[in-house]
Every structure is written in C-alpha cells, then in structure tokens.
C-alpha cells in the first residue's frame, strides 16, 4: 500500500512539472532566473544596440517611460520577479514584475507599470510600479513574456493576478515620437507586428 501511495505521489509531481509553462531562455539557451540581471536587445539585431532605457516623454522630466534606445546604448540591466515568490525560474505566459537596475532621477521605484500618458494619448510602460502583492491594486505592474515562433520573445500586458478585473491586453511595442529620447513601449493590440527581443 505504501508503495502505491509513493508511486502515486511521484506521478503527481511529474505531472505537475510537465504541466508548468516552458521556461524563458536567454541568448545562450540557459533558463532565465528570478533576480538575475539581464540585458535586452532586439532579436533581429546583429550587435547589442537598441537596448531598453528610461526615456522622457514630451517636455516633462518626470515621470519616466521605458523605451527602446535609438542609438548605441545597451541599456541598463533588468531583473524579473515571478508572481510566485517560491518560483526561481521565469516562465512564459506567467505574471512577472520587471525592474530596471539602479535608481532614477524621479525618485520612483524602477518597477515597470502600464499607465495612460496624456502627452502621447497612449497606454505606455513607465516606472513607479509596485513589486509583489499580486491583486487588483497592483494589476498594472504585472507583465508576461511570450514566445514568438520565429525568434525570441515579446513583452505582453495581460495579467492574471485578478480574475474579475476588466483590462486591455496587448503586446508592448516601441512607439517613435518626436518628443522623446527613446521609443516608449506602448500597449499595441495588432497581431501582425511584434517587438521580438532576446536576453543576454
């Protein structure tokens, strides 16, 4: 009887492991880990340019947006924190907080959040979000990484931390403006274009 119970438990553990979403892999094929620093670059780039930076929008110095660099900047390091604090692997289709390393000139947290910007008339990624505490109050601080068939991953806003909340889902895509020192990431619901990135 004990043997049957033991084998049943092992089978359940294996089944649970197999049903978990696939891990996100870096440019070297290694699993992305929670709390480890990574840089981001476009998947179709031959060099390390075009990283993500903190960008000003319009003529205001604060708040700061997250955008793609237009020049030679590799961008700062990013860390990912999964919704389950006991999980050490970053997985596709799973809510994560994304944080830019270091500090910023606006004295805000460097946690990504989706927020409507009056200057651009768009929902864009800005800093000042909340880390952890998943639920309705932190809804806009959760993002996902999704695999793109031909190459790399895309950033997506479609959190699962609140089952009854109404929200807009979509990909995050660099949006070129005349007033910014970068291309802020905006919520974009078209399916024909993707901002494909890899991590290194």
Descriptive overview:
The protein is mainly beta and 200 residues long. The protein contains 1 helix and 12 strands; from the N terminus they run αββββββββββββ. It has a single domain, classed as Trefoil (Acidic Fibroblast Growth Factor, subunit A) (Trefoil), CATH 2.80.10. The strands form 4 sheets. A 6-stranded antiparallel beta sheet has the order 2-3-11-10-9-8, with no helix packed on it. The protein is globular. About 7% of the residues have low confidence. Keywords: Signal.
Give a short summary of the structure.
The protein has 200 residues and is mostly beta strands.
Total domains, how many?
1
Instruction: Please report the distance between the alpha carbons of the first and last residues.
Output: 49 Å
Measured by DSSP, the beta-strand proportion falls in 25-35%
The largest β sheet comes out as: 6 strands, antiparallel
- What is the CATH-assigned architecture? Trefoil
CATH class: Mainly Beta
- Which word captures the global form? globular
Family: Belongs to the protease inhibitor I3 (leguminous Kunitz-type inhibitor) family.
Keywords: Signal
Protein name: Proteinase inhibitor I3
GO molecular function: endopeptidase inhibitor activity
């Amino acid at each position: 009887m004990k043997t049957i119970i033991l084998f049943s438990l092992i089978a359940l553990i294996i089944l649970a492991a197999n049903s978990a979403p696939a891990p996100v892999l870096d440019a070297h094929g290694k699993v992305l880990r929670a709390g480890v620093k990574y840089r981001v670059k476009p998947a179709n780039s031959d060099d390390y340019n075009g990283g993500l930076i903190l960008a000003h929008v319009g003529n205001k110095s604060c708040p700061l947006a997250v955008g793609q660099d237009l020049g030679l900047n590799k961008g700062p390091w990013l860390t990912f924190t999964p919704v389950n604090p006991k999980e050490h692997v970053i997985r596709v289709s799973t809510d994560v907080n994304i944080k830019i390393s270091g500090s910023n000139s606006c004295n805000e947290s460097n946690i990504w959040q989706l927020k409507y910007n009056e200057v651009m008339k768009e929902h864009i990624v800005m800093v000042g979000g909340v880390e952890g505490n998943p639920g309705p109050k932190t809804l806009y601080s959760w993002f996902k990484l999704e695999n793109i068939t031909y190459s790399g991953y895309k950033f997506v806003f479609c959190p699962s931390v609140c089952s009854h909340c109404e929200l807009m889902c979509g990909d995050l895509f660099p949006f070129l403006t005349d007033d910014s020192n970068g291309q802020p990431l905006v919520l974009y619901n078209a399916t024909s274009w993707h901002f494909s990135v890899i991590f290194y």
